[in-house]
Every structure is written in C-alpha cells, then in structure tokens.
Amino acid sequence: MSAQALPATLAGWLEWIEQLHPSSVALGLDRLRAVAQRLDLRLDCTVITVGGTNGKGSTCAMLESILLQAGYRVALYTSPHLVHFNERARLSGEPASDELLLPHFEAVERARGDTQLTYFEFTTLAILRLFAQFAPDVAILEVGLGGRLDAVNLIDADCAIVTCIDIDHVEFLGDSRETIGREKAHVFRSGRPAICSDPVPPASLVEYAQEIGADLWLFGRDFNYAGDRQQWSYGGRTQRRSAFAYPSLRGANQLLNAAGVLAALEALRTRLPVSQQAVREGLATVELPGRFQVLPGRPVVVLDVAHNPHAAAHLASNLDAMGRFRKTWGVFGAMADKDIESMVEHLKTRIDHWLPVDLPGARAASAQALLARLAAAGVEAGEERIVEAHPSAREALDSAEARAGQDDRIVVFGSFLTVADVLRARQRHG
After folding, report:
1. 166 close to 184: Cβ distance less than 8 angstroms
2. How many CB atoms lie under 10 A from the CB of residue 394?
3. How far apart are CA 298 and CA 351, in angstroms?
4. What is the mean pLDDT of residues 31-35?
5. What backbone torsions phi and psi does residue 77 show, to the nearest 5 degrees?
6. Of 71, 108, 153, 181, which cross-links 204 as Cys (Cβ 3.0–4.6 Å)?
7. What architecture is domain 3-285?
8. How far is CA 305 from CA 67, 271, 290, 292, 310, in A?
9. CA nearest neighbour of 349 among 312, 400, 297, 310
C-alpha cells in the first residue's frame, strides 16, 4: 500500500487488515517471525503468558489488577474484544487510545512487505510493538488460540500459565484433551516457571514440560487453595497467603484461577515482589465484563461469554448458586462449529425459555440453525416453554425483558458477539 493510501483511522485500519488474508486463522509462526525481525520487536520486561481453554481472561484481569495495586507499570494484551478494539491493549489499566495504536499499525504494514498476515497476527504485532515502546515493568499476554503456533508465542514468557483445558477449536487443535494439552503447553519455556491450574492436567502437558525442563507448578501438588463461606487462603511451595475475601469476579471457578495467579506471583517473587495488601486490593477491585456479569435491576440480567461445553457447565453451576428464580430466559448465540448440543445439555434444566439469535459473520450459526440444534438436544416450544428466533441479541433481550416477571432472570450467553451486542446497546443508551 502506498503512503498516500494508508488508512487514517483505527476503523480504517481494521477494515483494511480484514482483507489481507483469505483465512481468519492461519496458524504458524514463520511469517510472523520474519515480520517481527524486520520490526526489531522485543519486550525488555517480565512477560507472563496465559493460555488455556477457559479462564484466560479472568486470570489476566486478576494479574493486571494485583500488579497495578503493587505499583507496577503493566501492559495487558487480551482478545477478542467485546465492544471496542482498544480493549485488547491496556496500558496501566486503561485501553490504549487510537492515537497511540495508529503508528504501530503503519509500522507493521511497512515491515510486512508481501507477507500475508491475518487480522489477529497483524494486530498482535502492532500491539506488541506498542508495548515495547511503552516499556512496562510487566507485560501480560493472553494466547488467542492454542499455544504452539499462536502469534503470542513469538515472545518467550518468563512465566507461563495454562488454565483449564477442554475440547474446543477441534479443527485447529485436535479432538482430545491430550492433543490440545500438548499444543497449549508450548507456551512453557525451559528452566522457567510453568503454572498449570487445571486440577486434572493432560499427561501430554506434564510430559512436554518435563521434556523441555520447565519448572512445572501443578495445582494440588505445588499450590492449592482452601476456603469457607467467608474467606479463602492460598498455599504454594514456600508461600502462604490467607484471610482473603472472595474475588470480585463471580463464579465458582474463580478461586482456581486466582490460585494460578498467586502461584505465578510466588514463582516470580524475586523479580516482582507483591505485598499481601496488593493481592487483597487487586482481587477485591478486579473487573471483567461478560464473565458472569450481573447487571443491576429487575429482572436480573446475567451476561456470560460461555461459548463451549466446559464454560457452559461452569455457567450452569453459577446459575444454581444464585438461588431460586420464577423463570429463566436464555438469549443464546453461538458459532456454528461449536458443540452446541453439549452446551444446551448443561443448561436445558436451568433455562425455561430459549431465544436463539442471529450473529454477524460467516462462522456464526443462524438463529434458525440454533432452533434445529436446540430441538436435537430436546428443547422445543410447548405450553410451558417459549423457543423463538430473534435477529439480534439486543432484540431478544428487549423481548425477554418485556415478558419476564420481576422475579425472573435473563441469561445472555454464548459467543462474545452475543454479549457484545447487549453491552454495546447498553452503553449507547447509558
């Protein structure tokens, strides 16, 4: 692209780079490595990489919150975003502005030459270059997909965390926890802390960590947590931290994520010392939209980006823990390649009325297709059950709110796009 033709806005850049590669996903690091070398890309700070199937976002948010409370200069890269692209690049706890991002998009475009990059690859390189310029004390990098061939794995982590592992993205990562576990374990590095907060880690992950000589920390062996109704405590190899209030992020699985975070901080304690008070404040103030997020008002509205069976099972248990509601309405949108029947199986006894929705993009399942897959899972309209398609999540939510009683509950879940549509509408109407 000529200099005159370079986009002038972030929206223009994002539209441009969506056209660069015929696929949305093209795993492999050779192309990226070549462009990164031309950019002389490196992060001269402590790097924590976070991979896994579910729990990555919560883990990253807790790490960021605690490290900011400890006084560190923190850069955080996550994906996908919910409403604004800038959410993917956070500097000192705030999304990077368009003005900060634009020069790095230009630099990647000039450096790539004829190399084809996907949207994710291009934006990852731009954000990493922004981080290098920002010069943080610590960079937290969330893996996009898998680990071994993901763009984030260009950077050698000083400490890597793999959260829970389950079957997802089968076409790219394989169809068993063992195959997927090995892919995700490739974020580990020789001689460096490798934290796994999955209570039942695949043998392949453990074997890979041993093969490369990583310092593997396993939940239940090297670190653990214990709690009662009031508070919880962490126990690691040499460090104990106790008398914590529960994290402000809701959900039964958040203590597991928090324990993995504290294990990473214990492993890095000589480089990044963190006080008990910083941990306490960080866990008390952490926020993450769309992860069992309960909106104020009645009927209760819950937003959750549960987009695979493992996450749907956690959503089911979290809904159970909320107590009794007269009826539960489900606003549901998903990608067509997901195991939708298994997701529905976890939730069909918790949701009374189902409102499947259309989502943008070629990968999305249409609302009509979701109706068919709900029927295949045993969920059909009847005297006691409403099952109807809607053109968008926000319209489905409006419909549910118009018909739900004060003692009902509405759950908006599935793809990030489902939750994003509702959050965008809420922000617009203040």
Report:
1. no
2. 21
3. 17
4. 94
5. -115, 120
6. 181
7. 3-Layer(aba) Sandwich (3.40)
8. 25, 34, 6, 8, 12
9. 312
Q: Which tokens in the block code for residue 188?
A: 């580990």
State yes or no: cis peptide before 273, omega within 30 of 0: no
Interaxial angle between packed helices 56-69 and 254-267, expressed in degrees from 0 to 180 and rounded to the nearest 10:
50
Q: Is 56 in contact with 50 (CB distance < 8 Å)?
A: yes
Q: How far is CA 100 from CA 18, 90, 95, 265, 377, in A?
A: 20, 11, 10, 29, 48
The Cα 391–Cα 147 span in angstroms is 35
pLDDT at residue 175 in the model: 65
Q: How many residues does the chain have?
A: 430
- Dihedral angle, C-alpha 287, 134, 13, 151, nearest 10 °: -80
Token pair 């223009």 in the structure block, residue: 12
DSSP string across 389-411: -BSSHHHHHHHHHHH--TT-EEE
The CATH H-level superfamily of 293-428 is Mur ligase, C-terminal domain (3.90.190.20)
Q: Domain segments of the chain: what residues?
A: 3-285, 293-428
Verdict on whether the full-model pTM lies above 0.90: yes
Query: Which residue type does 354 have?
Result: W
- Give the up-direction half-sphere exposure of residue 369: CA atoms within 13 A in the CB hemisphere: 13
pLDDT tens readout for residues 151-183: 999 999 999 999 998 865 555 555 688 988 998
The first and second tokens of residue 320, run together, are 């159970």
- Judge whether 77 and 89 are in contact, CB under 8 Å: yes
DSSP secondary structure code for residue 429 in this structure:
T
Q: How far apart are CA 216 and CA 287, in angstroms?
A: 29
- Euclidean distance between CA atoms 194 and 186, whole angstroms: 10
Element holding 91 (H helix, E strand): strand 89-91
**Cβ neighbours for 41, distance < 8 A, ≥ 6 positions apart:** 125, 128, 129, 132, 154
Q: What proportions of the chain, in percent to the nearest 5, are helix, strand and coil? A: 40, 20, 40
pLDDT at 2 over 60: no
